[in-house]
Amino acid sequence: MLTYDTARKWIDRWDRQQEGYLPGREDRFRALIDAVEAGVGRPDPLVIDLGCGPGSLSARLLRRLPWATVVAVDTDPLLLSLAEAGYGQTTGLRFVSADLRTPGWSERLGLDRPADAAVSTTALHWLPEEHLRAMYAELAGVLRPGALFLNGDHLNSDETTPTLARLERAVHQNEERRVFGDERPEDWRQWWDAVLADPALAEAGEARRRSAAAAAHQGSESGLLSQHVNALRDAGFGEIGTLWQRGNDRLLCAVRP
């Protein structure tokens, strides 16, 4: 049985490897949660965490907003196993297994009212654009009017602004060099190779190997800012813009009319 201590060891190691791609990861978390706190208009919001992984964002959000309810959704059995063991006793937090690429995913959330916000960090870039568009359209249907969508991710400018795109990448790369030098943290593949070799996670690892949805969870199919902005606009969201940015790492916000 996966223990709390084992789960937290791997979650902490996950956070460190993610920081290798995001030297400003905690700053981005804070900006996102600042926006939720300032924007939802109530101390007990209902928040959906899309592509929650092992629960890092959900846990931080509930530390700031302890009266909130967070429904965290992912399709990866191993990451959800870590999340349940590491954060499953957190008041107000519930984890759901669902594939955001499958129509009807929102029905699995078990919401009793429209959500006040939906959030995500470093997750939605892996959705192919057609699935991203369908997901945003379905998401709009479970958010209340005035609700926020907040997505922190590497979202690049496109070929219409080539100088900006180049400068955004340069800013991010220079920050990585300043922070890490030649001592780069463990990367994503190294983390996965290590966690799948841990006997304590053998059952969750086998479930992941059997899951076609989890196996396809990789790559950067929707890594352009314009892909997300256009898809959100077509899904009916109103105001759309960047709230926080460091190079090509940004926090995109959209408001449900």
From TrEMBL:
Superkingdom per UniProt: Bacteria
GO BP: any one term: methylation
Keyword tags: Methyltransferase, Transferase
Molecular function, one GO term: methyltransferase activity
InterPro entries registered for this protein in UniProt: Methyltransf_25, SAM-dependent_MTases_sf
Domain spans labelled Methyltransferase: 47-146
Protein name: Class I SAM-dependent methyltransferase
Organism this protein belongs to: Microtetraspora fusca
